[in-house]
Amino acid sequence: MVEPSTLLLFAGAVLLLLMSPGPNMAFVIAHGASYGWRGGVVAALGIGAADLVLTALTAAGLTAAIAQWPPSFDLIRWTGAFYLLWMAWKAIRVRAGLPLHSAIQASLMSVFIRAMLNSLLNPKALLFFMVFLPQFVVRGSSPVAQQIVTLGLVLTLIAAFFHVALGLVGGIIRG
What we know:
Layout: H1 4-19, H2 23-59, H3 62-68, H4 70-96, H5 108-120, H6 123-132, H7 144-174
């Protein structure tokens, strides 16, 4: 298992990184403000699901393989940038044809899926799982994959609470 002192240090580092603005934070607040607290919470849950996927990929060694081939990270980063531009284009195109008071309510499932994609293509999240998380693994302590899963679950739990709070704040902004 992971040492309690390592978990405490990791949890503090996770909180500090979560407080730095990024695409996930903007996504959750925007969806909370657009769709109410439910939209913000569902967006937070989608990001949590993406964190679990990234944890599994890291434990399986896939993120290490991506880190070994630098063009793969650039490909993921550019895909993420194009995805964000596509979402912005869709939002501008749809809103241009609607009166200001009209709001298009996406299904909560589509918010969840978009939140997952937003997080999976987020360079900040990818770097965290590829570079930062493995630094907290203690070689020879317990199986590396088990430590990564434990750290990933701690990250997911902290991030879920953080993003749910942001989603609720977005809902308050909507009110």
